[in-house]
């Protein structure tokens, strides 16, 4: 979070969710049929289609067919919009009932990890944005609340819960981020993920310094199994998640 310099006379930005003032007007006023929900929906669509680097208030206004000043009637800054978009996509996540006595915490934890990974892959811009803001919107908080309650059911003592949450969901964050960026690069080339992967491996064959590592990687990937990139990624993710769940179980038994 950026901090204002003492000489600027401006306070550091906090969060759009901590806004206490009444929404101000802007030159030209609000537009019929335009509200924060509509603006947020279009923001998400643009971020998905064009990426974070190309997103701007001017580009958003053009997509909405309004002036940029009309958008400022509803939000103060681009950061406000990014926070709103971030929380909006968290609303896509299906959440288990952490109080369901007939459901195992392991299954619920795997489900939460899997849907979060899918969210990161569907929205590659989410990863850098999630690392920038407080993430205290209602949908994000709902997800965090369920995660905490599911992990509490593991039997770990309270002082170990945040460590377990970090182990699982920082792993998912990293895995989903890399996976999302991979598919974004693939889309830019016009290739399929499998063709892109084969092309990359063939290209590396021509690099003498990488030949040994590439050959070892081929052997590892052959042992891993899976005929497609998607299958290989799924196998790795599932096994890594199983390792983390097993680690939690071991720590609970250790007491």
Describe the protein in words:
α1 crosses α4. The protein has 255 residues and is mainly α. The two termini are 38 Å apart. The chain has two domains: 27-90, Homeodomain-like (Arc Repressor Mutant, subunit A, Orthogonal Bundle); 105-190 and 225-254, Tetracycline Repressor, domain 2. Mean pLDDT is 87; it is low at 1-10 and 24-28. It contains eleven helices and no strands. The longest helix has 32 residues, at 158-189.
Q: Give the CA-based shape.
A: flat
Please identify, by name, the CATH architecture of the largest domain: Orthogonal Bundle
Mean pLDDT across all amino acids: 87
What is the CATH superfamily classification of the largest domain? Tetracycline Repressor, domain 2
The gist of it:
The protein has 255 residues and is mainly α. The protein has helices at residues 36-50, 57-64, 68-71, 78-90, 105-122, 126-130, 138-152, 158-189, 193-205, 211-224, 229-254.
SSE order and pairing:
Elements: H1 36-50, H2 57-64, H3 68-71, H4 78-90, H5 105-122, H6 126-130, H7 138-152, H8 158-189, H9 193-205, H10 211-224, H11 229-254
Features:
255 residues; 11 helices; mainly alpha; Arc Repressor Mutant, subunit A; Tetracycline Repressor, domain 2; 64% helix; disordered N terminus; single chain; 2 domains
């Amino acid at each position: 979070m950026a901090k204002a310099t003492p000489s600027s006379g401006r306070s550091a930005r906090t969060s759009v969710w901590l806004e206490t003032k009444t929404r101000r007007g802007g030159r030209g006023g609000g537009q019929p049929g335009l509200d924060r929900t509509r603006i947020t929906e279009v923001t998400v669509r643009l971020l998905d289609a064009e990426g974070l680097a190309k997103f701007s208030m001017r580009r958003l206004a053009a997509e909405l067919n309004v002036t940029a000043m009309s958008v400022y009637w509803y939000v103060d800054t681009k950061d406000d919009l990014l926070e709103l978009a971030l929380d909006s996509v968290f609303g896509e996540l299906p959440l288990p009932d952490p109080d369901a006595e007939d459901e195992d915490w392991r299954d619920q934890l795997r489900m939460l990890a899997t849907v979060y990974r899918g969210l990161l892959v569907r929205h590659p811009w989410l990863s850098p944005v999630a690392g920038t803001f407080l993430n205290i919107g209602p949908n994000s908080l709902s997800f965090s609340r369920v995660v905490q309650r599911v992990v509490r059911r593991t039997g770990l003592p309270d002082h170990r819960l945040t460590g377990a949450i970090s182990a699982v969901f920082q792993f998912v964050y990293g895995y989903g981020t890399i996976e999302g960026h991979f598919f974004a690069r693939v889309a830019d080339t016009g290739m399929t993920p499998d063709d892109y992967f084969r092309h990359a491996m063939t290209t590396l064959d021509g690099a003498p310094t990488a030949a040994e590592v590439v050959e070892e990687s081929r052997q590892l990937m052959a042992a891993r199994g899976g005929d497609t990139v998607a299958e290989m990624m799924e196998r790795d993710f599932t096994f890594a998640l199983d390792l983390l769940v097993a680690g939690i179980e071991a720590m609970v038994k250790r007491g």
